[in-house]
Every structure is written in C-alpha cells, then in structure tokens.
C-alpha cells in the first residue's frame, strides 16, 4: 500500500489539496485533524480542562470515534453522532490544539491512523504525518502559505458556516495554535527532513500540478 503524507499549519489548504490529489490518484483521503477535533469537542462538552492531562486521559475510554465516507467525503462520528459540522469552530480548534499535544491523546489515535494504511492507498494530512505517523511514507509534503492568506481563508470558512468572529480574532487564534503546534515536545508540527516544501499561496491548480509531478516521480 502507498502512503502520501501532507503536513503543514492550519489554514494552509492541506485538506483541499489532499482531497484533490486523492481524487486524481484514487486514494483514500484521511483528515487526521478532524480526529483531534472530535476529541477536542468531546472534552469541551464534558467541561474538562484541556490542559489537565490526567483528566483528559480518563475521558478517552468513553470516546467511540468512527470515520465514514459518504460520496467520497469523510464524515466524523462521535459516539454515534455525526459531528462533522460541529468540529470546525474556533472554540473547538483551541481545545483540539491543546489536547492534541497530550501524549495519551496522540497514543489513542496513533494506531487507528496507521491501521488505515494497511488496507488502502492513503493520502493523510495533519501536522506530524511525515515525521511520526508515517516516517516511511512514499511521498512527504509540507504545505506553506502566507499568514494573511491563511487567516483570510479560515475567516471565510467560518463566516460560511455562520460563525460570528473577526479577521483579527482568527489571526490571533492561528498564531496561538501555530506556536503550540510547532513548539510542543510531542510530535511538533515541523517538516520532515525529506519533505518536499509546497507553497500554496497561489492558484490551487498550480500546486496540484506540481504535487502530482513529484508523486509521479517518486511512485513509479
């Protein structure tokens, strides 16, 4: 089975790029960020301090997470409830950023993420796919984009969902999350040494074409 890892910060366009590449290649797309968001949502609902590692760890056995694909789209289920439309808010993002840095949470999801690649060719995006989840990935990308472009994309997404926020608030939240994700001791969001850097600030089609060229070169 082939594995393609796509890492990068929030708002860099990893999901859109990954979905497009998966469609072209006929691979299964896995959004690992959604998995961490499901945990963040559960912890938020339970009223647990996301910084309290032991308290969060105690909640994990009660989380039953399922991924179901509907018309090729990944849907996230939490204890039987489809929460795909609930895990993209700024508040859940903050909880996901904090809890995803906790070793018990990462261990909880590690095997599930790796198991997906045992029976499918996968494109998996996240922050540590090429460094931790699949250090042996056939192709590794690290997606970058200008901070302003990232914030504007994220702001537009939130407005489209009906969430009330401001561009300044989105920029502040992103800066906090970037700091948390890149400096944490466990699985920091940094490029793998052998990752191909992808600047996604321009037209998506150009990024897709370049990524496809790299994939075709590396996977004969």
Short description:
With 220 residues, this protein is of the alpha/beta class.
Question: Your description of this structure?
Answer:
With about 220 residues, the protein is α/β, with parallel strands linked by helices. The chain has nine helices and eight strands. The strands form two sheets. It has a five-stranded parallel β-sheet with strand order 2-6-1-7-8. A hairpin with a 2-residue loop joins strand 4 and strand 5. The model has no long low-confidence stretch (mean pLDDT about 90).
List keywords for this structure.
globular, 9 helices, 49% helix
Instruction: Please provide the count of β strands.
Output: 8
Summarize model confidence as the mean pLDDT.
90
Number of helices: 9
Task: Give the strand order, joined by hyphens, for the main sheet.
Answer: 2-6-1-7-8
> What form results from the Cα inertia axes?
globular
Could you give the order of the helices and strands?
EHEHHEEEHHEHEHHEH
Radius of gyration: 17 Å
Question: Could you list the spans in which at least 5 consecutive residues all have pLDDT below 50?
Answer: none
- Mind summarizing the main beta sheet? 5 strands, parallel
**Percent range of helical residues:** 40-55%
Strand content: 15-25%
SS-derived structural category: alpha/beta
